[in-house]
Input
Amino acid sequence: MQVTQHVFVAHIDDKAAAHPGGSNIYFVGDPKGDMVIIDSGDQAMEWRQGIMQLYEDLGRPHISSILITHGHADHVGGLDRLFEVVQAPVRCHPKLVKKLSGVVGESNVLKVNAQERISTGGGLSLLAINTPGHEVDHICYYLRKEKVLFTGDTILGSSSSTVKDLSDYMKSLDKLSRYSVEVICPAHGGLVENPRSTRLIPWYIKHRQEREKQVLLALSNGVDDVDEMVKEIYPRNLKKALRRAAAGNVRTHLDKLIKDGTVEEKPASYTLKG
Output
């Protein structure tokens, strides 16, 4: 599917509970010249078929690089097979270079510097924006000429995202909010057109702030166990597959509150059985 003049998406309906709305791999640039691919997808056959179908539909363009948003399996799991076909250098966060070198060879992996401009073909370039939070090695990419922001897992199209370091994540959201954007292209979920009118990024920030208030309220009510906090904060009908992610989100909020000096963690105590 074509998103803008120079952006195309392979949408994979993977039905993953953790990120509703499916997943997306992007081709950016000029199909008659050079293009880049953003992320390589999972190793599952449906991913490979979806990506290769778009590659064929575009006329098998020359791929100048494969850009990686971060190192989770559904973003790099299909890298070896994709690399075999397009034979393009892999660009990623410096902390991810060693891992991906073991997949496609050290000489084929190059680090992406913060604020680096990466040529996509068609006289265009993508700006690399370091956005830690969801993961320490996360990078978003901004196509200034068409005002398209590729957000990886930092901002999703149909749900909120899981977070590893909430302090970093909030700073990354603030950073992304400063760019003029007409289309957000997330790694999962639907595309978001005119995100300023929908106030998607402010919603993400507000959502985390409200969740933090809920955690603080739970603590003030004497709830000091993560699983019990999940029961108090999240809907009672929360799917079992999402409970682990919910507990992880609660923990990231607690970690941030500890860093802020608002909450202290007391170590567990142990005694011998009588």
